[in-house]
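#structure-requests
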Amino acid sequence: MGYVTSLFARKMVAAAGAEIDAHALLTSVGLDPDGAWDPKVMLPAADYYDLLERIAVQIDVTDLPLRTGASMQLDEYGALGLAFKAATTLGRSYARVERYARLWTSVVEYELRPDPRGTLFILHRSGERRLGLRLSNEATLASAVSLARQVSPKPVTPLEVLVGHAAPPTTCAHQEWFGCPVRFDADLDAVLFSPETLAQPNILGDEGISRYLISHLDAELSEIESEATLVTQAKDAIAQALSEGVPKMDDIARGFGLSARSFHRRLAESGMSYQTLTEDTRRELAEGLLRDNNHSLAEIAFLTGFSEQSSFTRAFKRWIGTTPASYRRDRMRR
């Protein structure tokens, strides 16, 4: 499933304004409406997307991602926000996001990729292109530019913004906010910057402070990655056991020499429950097997812990939004 920082949800709700019931929306995803805006508090990505889609029922969300991106402040991002600010150039700021964004989210990866015109700052997020995910991607791209404008001594205007889904009914607000062409239905979700823009020195760039903050971020990332190792190993153990049915948490925990209680606590520290871990494993295993034409749908149902193919089909459609057969056909056309 994956997780995102609750800061994103709070920002989206705040940007939506008085036309929505902010209290009810935040409560519905387990957040205290009056609680602290702590970026370390994580929210399941699916719950975040659901939240955005409920907002879309109540108001016009065409420019909501832009308003949300514009409201993002570096000081709200903890140590990573400070490290972005303290980097000596804008290019180095984005390099820190590329390396340390795992502190914000487990569903997005960032990449700096050379381009003939400059450098692409690319957003990678897998999953069905549901409305919530699309809104989240647009807000992330807007945030990337908004944060750059907070640290640069000169106005930051990208060369182009690429969005990997269809355009909303009107894109005037997007063109105006970014100040450059915005191309929807692109192959990437990315912001293209010129070499001159990324070479600009940051207002508060400081090499000494940067080294201190980087050591702090490395320590935080190390903690996350050590817990992620347990999650990865647990997924492998679950995958190996699925052909005999969904394994019990006690059995998986025993394989790591842990009590069920300790195993549950370790997963919770990684923002994960055993149920979510099992669902994620079954979904990822199913997607991998469907890309291999050597397995029939009935065999894949069995290997992912389902006693009947019909049950597997219903579960897969809930996970991905399409049937296993359609997913396989679509993959074969690519």
